[in-house]
Amino acid sequence: MRIVLVGPPGAGKGTQASFIASHLGVPKISTGDIFRANISQGTPLGVKAKEYLDAGQLVPDELTIDIVRDRLSQPDAVAGFLLDGFPRNVAQAEELDEILADNGVTPSSGKAYLDVVLDLEVDNDEVIKRISGRRLCRNDSGHIFHVDYSPSRDGAVCDICGGELYQRSDDAEGVVRTRLEVYAAETAPIIDYYREQGVLTTIDATGEVDVITGRAFAAVDAARG
């Protein structure tokens, strides 16, 4: 299956993407993960991407599209994939259709090259609370805490490895608000784009993680027929 997840920052796309990709046996392709890996490695792409992300802005289309085109050409993505973080605007959505056509994909119905687009919905206040309260371990251990939902015992140190906890620069409340404004202006219009193609399913992304996952699985299974 060819799947795209859309939704505001903090909607839980990364978490649900992992579960859905595992459920279907397809690769999860996250442009955010690719950018962050390049940032941590100090690559030229990472340096450019960091400037935009730190300001709460989207990475320019040309950089993002080149990465996605290369990734979707790899053998493990031929039979299907789950995209998280792309497309972020209508121009990218149209470019994705062209990439898939160039890769020999035949539209599944009408002009739709994707099987399903899952729109994870959550209100802005909840997004701000989720993201601005997130704290990461500086030891690159991957451990993540939240000041409200899953706090560390002393608030400043990782319970697991003892590393210092910090707030990522693009998780600051002011930046999150900017990210939400950018989402509303740039990304939300693709919801109509995919609704017109008949592949959009909206999912309530509030509540317990496993409940949201159940909603996502039901939507994916319905799309599979």
TrEMBL record:
NMP: region residues: 30-59
Family annotation (SUPFAM superfamilies): P-loop containing nucleoside triphosphate hydrolases (SSF52540)
Reaction equations catalysed: AMP + ATP = 2 ADP
Signal peptide: none
Annotated positions binding AMP: T31, R36, Q57, L58, V59, G85, F86, P87, R88, Q92, R168, R179
Pathway: Purine metabolism; AMP biosynthesis via salvage pathway; AMP from ADP: step 1/1
InterPro entries named among the record's database cross-references: Adenyl_kin_sub, Adenylat/UMP-CMP_kin, Adenylat_kinase_CS, Adenylate_kinase_lid-dom, P-loop_NTPase
Keywords linked to the UniProt accession: ATP-binding, Cytoplasm, Kinase, Nucleotide biosynthesis, Nucleotide-binding, Transferase
Protein localization: Cytoplasm
GO BP field: AMP salvage
Ranges of residues in domain Adenylate kinase active site lid: 134-170
Gene Ontology CC: one annotated term: cytoplasm
Gene3D superfamilies, alphabetized: P-loop containing nucleotide triphosphate hydrolases (3.40.50.300)
PROSITE patterns xrefs: ADENYLATE_KINASE
Pfam families: ADK, ADK_lid
EC code: 2.7.4.3
Lineage: superkingdom: Bacteria
Family listed: Belongs to the adenylate kinase family.
Complex and partners: Monomer.
HAMAP family: Adenylate_kinase_Adk (MF_00235)
Domain observations: Consists of three domains, a large central CORE domain and two small peripheral domains, NMPbind and LID, which undergo movements during catalysis. The LID domain closes over the site of phosphoryl transfer upon ATP binding. Assembling and dissambling the active center during each catalytic cycle provides an effective means to prevent ATP hydrolysis.
Name this protein carries in UniProt: Adenylate kinase
